[in-house]
């Protein structure tokens, strides 16, 4: 099994829609740290699981310096973003989304 891991740093804002009162309901930003893990049994014609540039284009291009509530049609929690990454990036098996030191969400297929 081949595994590649891409680390991304993204600046983005969001607000959460919650069923309880929280200051996270207000628009605020994070310097997100995201790790994307992709795996494949065999390599493509270029000798890759996936080009690191492709991972960056899919995630960084969608999220960086945006209001995530305007980008996604779901509540942009770290958990939901991690799942979106796994569903969006080819061969992704794990996404780790850290919105701040000590606050990390992981989604694994």
Automatic annotation (TrEMBL):
InterPro entries: 6-PTP_synth/QueD (IPR007115), 6-PTP_synth/QueD_sf (IPR038418). Binds 1 zinc ion per subunit. The keyword Lyase applies. Keywords: Lyase, Metal-binding, Zinc. Zn(2+) binds at residues 14, 28, 30. GO terms for molecular function: 6-carboxytetrahydropterin synthase activity; metal ion binding. SUPFAM superfamilies: Tetrahydrobiopterin biosynthesis enzymes-like. Belongs to the PTPS family. QueD subfamily. This is 6-carboxy-5,6,7,8-tetrahydropterin synthase. It comes from Megasphaera cerevisiae DSM 20462.
């Amino acid at each position: 099994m081949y595994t590649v891991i891409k680390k991304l740093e993204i600046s983005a804002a969001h607000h959460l829609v919650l069923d309880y009162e929280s200051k996270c309901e207000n628009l605020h930003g994070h310097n997100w740290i995201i790790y994307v893990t992709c795996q494949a049994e065999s390599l493509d014609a270029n000798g890759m699981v996936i080009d690191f540039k492709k991972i960056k284009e899919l995630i960084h291009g969608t999220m960086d310096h945006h209001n995530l509530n305007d980008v996604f049609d779901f509540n942009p929690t770290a958990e939901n973003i991690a799942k979106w990454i796994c569903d969006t990036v080819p061969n992704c098996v794990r996404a780790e989304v850290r919105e701040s030191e000590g606050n990390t969400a992981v989604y694994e297929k």
